[in-house]
Amino acid sequence: MGFDGEIFTRGESGYEDARRGALWNALTPDRFPEVIVWAAGEADCLAAVRLAREKGLKLSVRSGGHSWAGNHLRDDTLLLDLSGLRGFEIDREAMRASVQPGCPGNVLDLELEKLGLFFPVGHCPGVALGGYLLQGGFGWNGRVHGPACQSVVAIDLITPEGEQLTVSEESDPDLFWAARGSGPGFFSVITRYHLRLYSRPPVIANGIATYPLDALEEVFSWAKEIGPRVPRWMELMLFTHLDQGEPEVVVTGPVLAPSEAEAREALGLLESCPAAGRAKLSMPYFPARLEDLYAGVHASYPDDHRYAVDNMWTHAPVSELLPGIRQIAETLPEAPSHMLWMNWGESPVREDMAYSVEDETYIALYAVWQDPARDQANIDWATSNMVAMAEMASGIQLADENLGRRPARFVSEEKLERLDLVRSRHDPDGLFHEWMGRPA
Ligand SMILES: Cc1cc2nc3c(=O)[nH]c(=O)nc-3n(C[C@H](O)[C@H](O)[C@H](O)COP(=O)(O)OP(=O)(O)OC[C@H]3O[C@@H](n4cnc5c(N)ncnc54)[C@H](O)[C@@H]3O)c2cc1C
Hints:
The chain is an alpha+beta fold. It contains twelve helices and 20 strands. The strands form four sheets. Strands 12, 13, 14, 15, 16, 17, 18, 19 and 20 form a nine-stranded antiparallel β-sheet that branches. Flavin-adenine dinucleotide (FAD) binds at residues 24, 61-68, 71-72, 82, 101, 122-124, 127-128, 130-132, 134-135, 137-139, 184, 186, 189-190, 301, 399.
């Protein structure tokens, strides 16, 4: 069978580099695909589906490799690596883009910026659209546009039977429904997304304040309280991390705003924190480009590090969340490990798609380290702190999933049932892997 790309077979030269290279997280799991195919184009994708069937292997797909859990690194598998498929086209008049799955969101954004256009791409450079859009996609201005998968209008894919289709709400409502929210449990190879674009928000700015640990309760209570007053184009986020060995709370509120006056007014909210007088640092307003915001986020997610993550959605009262948050802050692993709190707010009724779990507040833990001797302790920190707060959770985001270690609710019960049904129709032989864990 001819491939234009490269093939690596387990045990042969180049295989281990291809396996490790398939994951951005340097904590590579001990799971070993039998064959890895680097696709050079769509014809290779089709050939890979056929080869997996011929060899009796399951199939997994990698786009950008930013799955924290390394979902596509599975045993007894042909791993189809699409990271080389990074092309995209933008139709300015129609406000549409078509993108290959390996294209990082920030690369698309640079071109959109030149045209005054916008798409809610992920917060970190390098996150590819392939996996990002499948799991929901929590991007810049996500509270305005909803999860990014809501802005997908059609998808080119290859089914488990090797059929090449363009699916949309009209042509194949079931597959289109499943692709928007099933994340690493999807059961076809996506080779291209067709996206709806938006006008670029005219003003981008940010503000920041940092607080000592003893202000933690005051700052989080205030953040929860002002939630309903925060404009949807402002992303109020709190972080706890170690600053020179001491835990601190960072408050930040990037805005992608309609005007400078509104941006300034919104960021003025940061100064309403009752602990404002005790801030260690306060920069209430600075203009930015999306590139600058990316650079700020990237500092907390350096390359070539080991990561363990976990997360929860919740609408629990802040008073009930605070003991858990304090415990997290007091046990933080080395910098830049952190906890993120995001005011997602009340969500509008969404269109019908597999994506179905979200809530007022998002809490996520990211352990970040380099020394392999710290692996177990840091994995435990992320997982056990979310276990401790699980009773207050309504579910998790697939973006930061840890399902292999801690199964949790990632879509509603009704949608999981429908996903199982659609899967059994489209992939009756189970060519594609499921999630690494599902709710009990
Ligand atoms: C540093 C960092 C920052 C992040 N920031 C954000 C953020 O701001 N917002 C957010 O929502 N998420 C964020 N994430 C999570 C990220 O969006 C998900 O991990 C997403 O899956 C990454 O997309 P990818 O293509 O790089 O992933 P991959 O690891 O390549 O894919 C993840 C899984 O999706 C499936 N898949 C991928 N491509 C295909 C395809 N073409 N066809 C079929 N199935 C496929 C596979 O099961 C695969 O294991 C971040 C992750 C990291 C590491």
